Amino acid sequence: MSGSGPLGLDPALLDILACPDTHHSPLTVDEPAGELLCTTCDRAFPVRDGIPVLLLDEARHRNAGTTGA
Ligand SMILES: [Zn+2]
Predict the structure, then answer these.
(1) Which of 31, 41, 51, 56 is the most core-located residue (most Cβ within 10 A)?
(2) Does pTM top 0.90 for this prediction?
(3) Distance, CA 61 to ligand 1 centroid (Å)?
């Protein structure tokens, strides 16, 4: 532990992280889920080994409806 932030991410990095979609909204950390959330498009981005995967292809929609599997 060397003073890293949630999910092992650098707080300074968290500050500049933004959704890769066109709105580029700031992301929120969901520590229990281990994900970064965009509140604008309701996408959740995984964090793997302390590296945020900010790819639309890798994101999942949190409120994708009731038929998701
Ligand atoms: Zn977004």
Answers:
(1) 41
(2) no
(3) 10
Domains and CATH numbers, the chain: 6-61 (2.20.25.10)
Quote the CA–CA distance of 57 and 27 in Å, as a whole number: 17
Span 8-20, average pLDDT: 91
- 43, 59 in Cβ contact below 8 A? yes
Give the distance (Å) from ligand 1 centre to CA of residue 3.
28
Ligand 1 centroid to 41 CA: how many Å? 4
Report how far ligand 1's centroid is from the alpha carbon of 1 (Å).
30
18-62 pLDDT per residue, tens: 999 999 999 999 999 999 999 999 999 999 988 999 999 999 998
